[in-house]
Amino acid sequence: MKRKGFTLIELLVVIAIIALLMGILMPALNKARQLAQQMVCGTNLKGIGAAMVVYSADNNDEFPRAGPSGMAWSTAGVINDSKTWDNANPTLAFKYGGTITSCFYLLIKYADVTTRQFLCKGDDGVEEFKLSKAGRTVATNIRQLWDFANGRAEFWPGEFCSYSYHMPFQVDNPRGNQPGEPDTINYGITGMSDPGSPVCADRNPHLDKNILYEQPEVGDNSAAHQGKGQNVLYKDAHVKFEKVVTCGINGDNIYTYGGDPDFGGGDGGGTAPVSNGDGGPFGEKDAYLVLEYNGDPKSM
How far apart are alpha carbons 214 and 31 in whole angstroms? Predict the structure, then answer.
C-alpha cells in the first residue's frame, strides 16, 4: 500500500532548502532594491538640475534663491507664519527669512517640477508634499505657496524634501572685522560658477534625524543610501554617485563649510553644521550643501 503525504524528515529537508534559498536571494534582492532607489534618486537630481538651468536662463543666470536680495537663512526651517506663507507679495512672504526648501519650491512654482521629484526613496520618513499637509492657508493650489510647509504648523519643510542645496543665502563674513572686508558674503551658485561645483546632493548627514537616532553607523555619508555614498548634482548638470563626501573642488567636503586658512574651501575638513544649521560657503571653491532638519529642530 502506498503511503500518502510527506514524512517529518522530508518536510524538514524542504524547509531547510527554502531557508537556504531565502538566505541566498534576500541579500541580492535588497541590493537590487537599493540600486533601484539610487538610480531613481539620481534621475530626480538630473531633472532638478535641468529645471535649475531653465530657471537661471530666465533669471539673469541666478540659480533658485527665495526672497529678496540680502535675505538670511531661516535655519529653523521657518519661512513665515500663517498670515504670510501664501502671500502673493514675496517681500511679505519672506519677511522672516528663507529656507533651502523654499528655494527648491521656486522650481515647483515656476519650472513645472513636481513635489514628488524632491523625494529619495532611501530617505527614511520623507513624504510627498500635498496641499492637505499645508496647515493653515487660504491657498487652493500648491503653486500659490512658497515652501513645502511653514514650520509653525504640524509639519516642517525638511519632512517633504530629501535634497541638500549649496547655500544660496547671505552669511556673515568670518573676516569682516579686517580692513577692506565686507560684513557679509554670498557665494551661491550662478551661471558663472565653476562647472565642477556641487549644486545638490542627498540630505546633509549633520542635519538628519535618521543618522542622529536611527543610523549612527553610516559615517560621513548621507543616510539615504545606507551610508554607501550620495548622489551629487554638479553645475555642468551631470549627476554622479560619490562614495565619499570629499568630492567638491580640490577634494572639498560638500557637507561642511570653510576648511582651509583662506576660507576658500578645497579641503577635506571644515566645520559641520550643528543643531538648526549655521555657516555658509567662504569662497568659490567651498561647497556647502545643506537642508533644513527633517523634523522639529527643538527635538535635537
Answer: 20
CB count, 10 Å around CB of 190?
Answer: 16
Residue 283 has pLDDT above 70, yes or no: yes
Rounded to an integer, what is the distance from CA 284 to the centroid of its chain?
A: 20
Distance CA 202, CA 171 (A): 23
Whats the size of the chain, residue-wise?
300
Angle at CA 43, nearest 5°, toward 150 and 51? Answer: 60
- Dihedral through CA 79, CA 83, CA 84, CA 88, nearest 10? 150
Overall pTM > 0.90: no
CA-to-CA dists, residue 224 to 28, 49, 216, 249, angstroms: 19, 19, 12, 23
Distance CA(243)–CA(231), nearest Å, equals 9
Predicted confidence (pLDDT) at residue 13 exceeds the cutoff of 90: no
Query: Which residues lie closer than 8 Å to 98 by C-beta, 6 or more apart?
Result: 65, 66, 67, 71, 72, 73, 74, 79, 169
